[in-house]
Every structure is written in C-alpha cells, then in structure tokens.
Amino acid sequence: CDSQGKRELICPICKELFTHPLILPCQHSVCHKCVKELLMLNHEDSFDAGSECSLPGSPRSRVPSPSMERLDRLVRSGGSQGSISSPGWRRGSVTPRVTAIPCPGCQHDIDLGERGISMLFRNFTLESIVERYRQAARAAVAIMCNICKPPQQEATKSCMDCKASYCNECFKLHHPWGTPKAQHEYVGPTTNFRPKVLMCPEHEMEKVNMYCEVCRRPVCHLCKLGGSHANHKVTSMGSAYKILKEKLAKSIHYLISKEDQVRTQITELEVLINKTEENGQLAERQANEHFERLFETLQERKSEMLRSIEQSRNRRMEQLRGQVEEYQGMLENSGLVGYAQEVLKETDQSCFVQTAKQLHVRIQKATESLRTFHPAADPCFDEFVLDTSREEMLLKEMCFGGVPDPPLIDLSNSRVYNEASICWRLSDDHLPTDHHMLEYRQSPSQEDGEDNGVWRATDRVYGPSTVVCDLEPDSLYSFRVRSCRNSMFSPYSPEVTFHTPPAPVFGFLFSDKCGFSTERLILNKRRDTVESVAGMAFLLAAERVQTGSYIGLDYIIGDTGISQGRHYWAFKVEPYSYMVKVGVASDTKLIEWFHNPRDTSSPRYDHDSGHDSGSEDACYELSQPFTLVTLGMGKLIIPKSSSTSSSSTANAQSADPGSRILPMPQRLGICLDYDACRVYFYDADTMRCLYERQVDCSGTMYPAFGLMGSGKVQLEEFLASKRLAF
C-alpha cells in the first residue's frame, strides 16, 4: 500500500490508522474513540454506553450501566411502550437521546438520532484493509501461537470463533475432529478477529439480510416489518451485493482504463504548480514595487511639506520678534521713550525743533499702533493641515490580488419550477462585491454516464438572487454562483441540484365564493393560506353530540379552473393538521359537495380518505370526477385502488395496506394532465412521484382541498402571485 493508498486508511480526526472505524450517515468513517471525543467536545453525554461498537470484540457487546436494571423494570412495567419490550428490540430505546456531531470529512452536521452512536455500523471492510496493511508493514514480525508454552511457535492459523492464533500442533489439539470446534472458521494468521455476521444495531438478535435503497444502509427483517424502514423500498442483501459490486468494479475498471489520461493530467497539474510558484513570486515582487513607489511618493510629499512648514515658521518668528523689539522701545527708560525724554531736555530752540519734528512722527505712529494692535504674523498653521481621509480609504480599498470568498446557494429560499428563483448568502468577509454570476446546466441522464452538460451563465447580478427562465420540464438542473470584486472572481459555490416539475406552474388563489364555510375556515388577506378552526368549540356548541362522529370536511377550491393541458402546483400542509384532503375535482362534483353537506360524516363514508373500510372497493369506480389523497398527523395516506387499475404500483398498494401510509412531505406537488385524464402527486422537494391515478376530466377541473378538524394549507408564493414566473 503506497503513501497515497495509506491516506485512505487514516482517520481524519486523530490522523492515525483507523481503529474500529464507524460509518457515519454521510458514508465517511471515523474511529470509534474519536466519535466519543467529538460528543464530549460538543458537551453531549448522550452516546449509548451499550453501543454495538463499545467493545472491539463484537458489535453487540455491552458495557454494564448502573441504570440498566431500572430501565429493564421500566420496560417490563410500561404497557404503553408497545413493541419496545418485545424480543429483538433494543432496551436503550426507552431513553431516547439526540446527539449531533460535525463530520470531519464533509463538515456537515450529523444527527445521530435518539440512539447515538449505537445506530452506527462498524466498517469491517475498512478494518480488514487496515489490518492487512499493518501485517504487511510488520511482515518481518511473525504472529506467534497464543497457546504454546515458551518457547512459542509461529502461528499458522487463526480461529475466528475462538479469537486466537495457533500453530499446527496446537490447532489440532484444540480443534479435534468430531467435535463442534472442528467446524470453526479459520483463516491465515491475523490479529483482527471481527464478528462473522453483521448484526442490526436496532434489533440486537437480528442479522442484517436486506438493503434499504432509501437510507442506503443494511437492515434486518424487523426494520422492514415494523421499524423505521417499514415504508421504504428494500432489496435482498445478495441483490444489493451484486449490484454494488458490479458498479464498483465498473468504476474501478473505468479509472484503470483512464490511467494515461490521469498521468497526463498529473503532468499538467505539476506544470500548473510550477507556474503558480513562479507567478506567486512575480506577484510578490510587483506588490513590493507598488508599495515602494507609494512609499517614495509619500516620502517626497512629506519632505516638501515639512520644508514649507519650516520656512513659514521662520518668517513668522522674525516678524513677531521685530514687533516685540518695537514695542520694547515704547517702554520707559528704553528705546523711543528714553530718547524722547532726553530730547525734551534740549534748551536750544532751533536744535530742539530740528530733532523733535521727526521724533514726534515716530511717537505718533507708536501711539497709533497701540490703539490698533495687530500681530505681525498669524501663529496658526491651518493651511498646512491635511485631510487624508480620502487617501486612507483608497489605501484600505487597495486590492492586490485579493480573491473574495464564494457565496452559498440558499436551498431553503430557492425554488425551481418552469422558472427558477435562486437565492444565495454572501461570504462573511464583510467586504462589498461588485456583482455575481450565476451559472446553470441541465444534468445529463444517468444512462449517459458522462457529464456533458454545458454551463450557461446569466447576466451580471447585483443582488443576492436572480431568476432563470425557460427550464425544461421534468429535468435535473445544477446551479452554481460566484462573486466578483475588483475584477477578481471568487471560486464557485458548491453545486446544488433541483428537479423541475413535469408541467408548467399553475397559478391560483383560494376561492371564497364557491361554498366557502366562513364559520370554520379562515382565509388570510392574500387568499394564499386557509386555516380550519373546527374543533372542540363546535362540538360543545352543538345541540347534540353523536358518539363516534366527526366534524365534517369543509371544502375549498382554487379560483381558477383547468380545461386543457398539463399544469403543476405545490403547497404546504402544516404538520399539526388533523386531516387535510388534497387533489382535484370537477365542477359537477363540487356542486354535490357544496349542496349536500355531511356535518357529522365519518371518514368511512369517503372511500378516498384512505380509511380501511371493507366497502370501499365495492363503491369505487376506475374513473371519477375527483381524486384526493389524505394528509394529517405527519402522514400521507394513499387511497385504495381498483383491481382494474392499470397501474402496477397501485395494485401493489392495494395489496399491501401498510405501503399506502407514507411520511408526510414538507411540500406536496400535484400535476394534472387534463388531456390524458391523469393526476400525479409528488414530493415537491425531491420531485418523487408518490401516487398517480386516472380521473374523469369531462368538465372544468379545480384544485380541491378539504379540511377536517384543525389544519392549515399554504400555497407556494409563486402560486399566490398568480404568475408563471416569480
């Protein structure tokens, strides 16, 4: 195993060879001890001490818990626990706990569910590969017999049942012919004694013998019959083994056949590495040159400004000092005043007049300066104060090759129909971006095998969202986005994939004109949300209460009908809703519904409710002017199908009542093909068809909704806008 191969055997947390690796739901592997440390770091004390992986010897080994006896008593005494205490079910389910850890491989948060790490499988295949690598690394050190007395002999066999290694003599001695031990499984010398059979982590005593295609994990028959995989599609382990092995072998063969191409690309990458090193050094030199020029310019401007300040200061100092000397002369016994006093002592009139005339002019000027005093120079240097805020901002915004971080496409706010509204979240660097570029392409079908889709780019986008028009129906589209700042583009965001509906979007609002019950239904102002308030208050207000009766269905329809073509719409039913029926109905059926109310009707009356009444099939016809499915209490109930139905899935659903109950999707989509007289129900998030059936489209068909008890239905925003685009 070379250094590249060894990298696959290194735990991403402890950076050492895997020790008892566990497979996370995201299919990455982590050491068992590292998962524990992750839980401790996240302040989670909810990992199951009775994990199948708690001891390396067996996936079912348990560490005794001080509270286990109390839990056993709770299980035995709790009649309401149902199947929890039945054989094959884990006792740990009495104390459900929720744990979450970040996967070190893909950085996604992994919710381990109520059972913590006890729900994770040991990756025995990876363990075997690691053990083979270890044995190859210490090939010079032989595995010794565990039974021999000193001096020990080199082992030739290892028993997987006894979990010990033997030399030939000791193996024969401890596995004699004709005894049960003779049937033990033995292999070559090894120190990796893994269990022979993979056991189900949910049901302790059951072997995994099936593969769930929905969850992509092995399951046992109890998981399929009454566990969390009851409504999932499963295949036999042999079939899954064959299919996955063929796919893996085919992929490996494809990689091997592309060896020359890989080597060529490695050479290209090495050239790119060299160019990157050279260009990086060049960029460093250029950046240094840019800053040196800036430093030189700033130094020149600094020297020039300091020189100007010094010259101005010297000039002003000289002027002010001269003025000081002048005023010093006005003082007594000094300067002008002292001289004038001496002149006054002159007695010769002609000499006095000759000198006093000029002296009097000087004294008058000094007297005037005292009256209007002004400094000879201004001490303020405001003209040399610089406002460098603009220059500082420019310097801060200077970008020498800074690449913005990529944005992330917001899956919760993005919607894709015949047009796509894609939203994204900007990076956290808090720097403004100039614009964004969204690219999209139609994903090739799985049969193509190669990704030959061409990326198409939108125009520049200056906000965090945009609309893509004219998408093909019933197709997979991939989207990615990147940001631009100062002509530098960020890396692309991770690609996200959406499935377009099979038909154009049909826009409508709820109608409050046709048979709308104002007492029990509430419409919001936009008429895109309807809520049923029927409940206990109406039972108490009634004149009589019939035991076993129910408040009747209150129907409401869309304000726009369909008379041709294919149309699709989607909506959300709140999980708390007691019972909501959704589908399509013709105008003739609406007249019957709204003019023949059944205020205390049982769900058994309506064969489309999903209720297992024995008389449903008798009154059902293949094509009726309406089709409804039932949602409520977190479930979706598919109606029974006629034995004459041409749909093979419908026949299977009719034969297996359990398969008619599915988890309620977050959003439900309906597609009506008026011309083909068929209606389809989809999980709007994955565009997986849940149910389809023929419907009589002889009249105008309307989106129909029926609410019983408390419930709420909310149309998608694109429907409420009554537009085919957002």
Explain this structure:
Residues 54-67 have a biased composition (Low complexity). Residues 11-53 form the RING-type domain. 30% of the residues lie in helices and 20% in strands. By secondary structure, it is of the alpha+beta class.
What is this structure, in a nutshell?
By secondary structure, the protein is an alpha+beta fold.
Secondary-structure blueprint of this entry?
Blueprint: H1 3-7, E1 21-23, E2 29-31, H2 32-41, H3 68-77, E3 99-102, E4 109-113, E5 121-122, H4 124-137, E6 157-159, E7 164-166, H5 168-174, E8 186-187, E9 210-212, E10 217-219, H6 221-226, E11 234-236, H7 237-257, H8 259-328, H9 335-343, H10 349-371, H11 389-397, E12 408-409, E13 415-416, E14 420-425, E15 435-442, E16 456-457, E17 465-468, E18 476-485, E19 488-489, E20 496-499, E21 521-523, E22 529-533, H12 536-541, E23 554-557, E24 566-573, E25 579-586, H13 587-595, H14 616-619, E26 626-632, E27 635-637, H15 648-655, E28 661-663, E29 668-673, E30 678-683, E31 688-694, E32 701-708, E33 710-715, H16 717-720
